[in-house]
Design brief:
With about 290 residues, the chain is mainly beta. The protein is about 10% helix and about 30% strand. The strands form 4 sheets. Strands 12-19-16-17-14-13-20 form a 7-stranded mixed beta barrel. The chain has a 6-stranded antiparallel beta sheet with strand order 7-6-9-4-1-11, with no helix packed on it. A 5-stranded antiparallel beta sheet has the order 2-3-10-5-8, covered by helices on one side. Strand 6 and strand 7 form a beta hairpin. The longest helix has 10 residues. The radius of gyration is 20 Å and the shape is elongated.
């Protein structure tokens, strides 16, 4: 058995393996998946000397704890949290050396939702359709971590960034999502369309990797007949029968039968990954480019 591996001691509420995802397979019904906060995942990979496509661990709310079987360099970013090695505090947002057999504990997020753990060499579970990402909707990729899981690691380059701490975007106090209207905004009343971009919503606790659900004013339909299923994209804002918008995230279905009132700019989606339940949400209409 290789000594380039991590043993999972505490899996946390939901910890998954994620990389850049598997784009280009929507025609097969396969979502993109990948790290919800892509910039945070890219940064921690860079801090430990990994390539951008290296797989990392994405934790949810209460972190995880792992024990490496050889000495590794790690970095934790995304949602701020307390990080310890064998009970001693170490840096968040900077490279940290973890000796073989030591316990690395990524604590609960103090703000935000998802933290990212990169390990020198990357997580090298078997890829599926070119990606190592866990997809909660389709079931592709490795299952969410459980206590006792052993994760193989790639070969380390032995080079990492020399920084005390790397600046990272703070989780949003208010989530502002720029949206391009359509393609089905005409299925809603003019009053509903105005409400969508003028009223404030809040992030629902029912949000997950598939979609950010909202609580707030229901959007009234002008056309009430059934909509045949059609393709939907990352960032699509679908409105189910309860009238509350849902923003599709990385594990979203590739088709849907509810009208899409708008599409969120891709650059705004990482912040959505870090918005805790109750965070105010505003949709701001922008022109088509």
């Amino acid at each position: 058995m290789t000594d380039r591996a991590l043993s999972v001691v505490r899996a946390g509420a939901l910890t998954t393996v994620q990389d850049l995802g598997r784009p280009g397979h929507a025609h097969l019904g396969v979502p993109r998946s990948g790290a919800l906060d892509g910039p945070a995942a890219a940064l921690v990979n860079r801090l430990v000397g990994n390539a951008p496509e290296a797989a990392v661990l994405e934790t949810t709310l209460n972190g995880c704890a792992v024990r490496p079987r050889s000495t590794v360099t790690v970095a934790i970013g995304g949602a701020p949290c307390r990080v310890t090695v064998d009970g001693r505090p170490v840096a968040w947002g900077a490279p940290v050396r973890v000796p073989s057999g030591a316990l690395l504990d990524v604590g609960a997020a103090t703000s935000g939702v998802r933290s990212y753990l990169a390990v020198s060499g990357g997580i090298t579970v078997e890829p599926v359709l070119g990606s190592r990402s866990t997809d909660l909707l389709s079931g592709l990729g490795p299952p969410p971590l459980t206590d006792g899981t052993v994760l193989p690691l790639g070969r380390s380059t032995q080079f990492h960034a020399c920084v005390d701490v790397a600046p990272q975007a703070a989780p949003p106090v208010e989530l502002v999502l720029r949206v391009t209207p359509g393609p089905r905004d005409d299925w809603f009343t003019p009053a509903a369309v105005r409400a969508f971009t003028s009223r404030t919503y809040r992030v629902s606790p029912a949000s997950n990797r598939i979609g950010l659900r909202t609580e707030g004013p229901a959007l009234e339909r002008a056309i009430t007949r059934e909509l045949p299923s059609e393709g939907v994209v990352l960032g699509a804002v679908q409105v189910p029968p309860d009238g509350r918008p849902v923003v599709f995230l990385a594990d979203h279905p590739t088709t849907g039968g509810y009208p899409v009132i708008a599409v969120v700019r891709a650059a705004d989606l990482p912040a959505a990954a870090q918005a805790v339940p109750g965070t105010p949400v505003r949709f701001v209409a922008v022109r088509r480019r």
